[in-house]
Sequence to fold (74 residues):
Amino acid sequence: MPHSIVSEICEGVTACVGACPVGCISSSEKKNNKGNDYYWINFETCIDCGICLQVCPVEGAVIAEERSDLQKGP
Fold:
């Protein structure tokens, strides 16, 4: 099951983008409610490796489950 980035918690740090081995993480053209850029995971491309979860310094921004209700797309 793919991981998800919780859009309202994401602070746009981008550590996950460079670490992802399949390039499934993209930036949104919008900002979240905190005014930050945020990123999202393409569920169809994610291989569930968990690297994004390991490298993200923002607690709770990446979760180990597919949650389209918490992750806004592009």
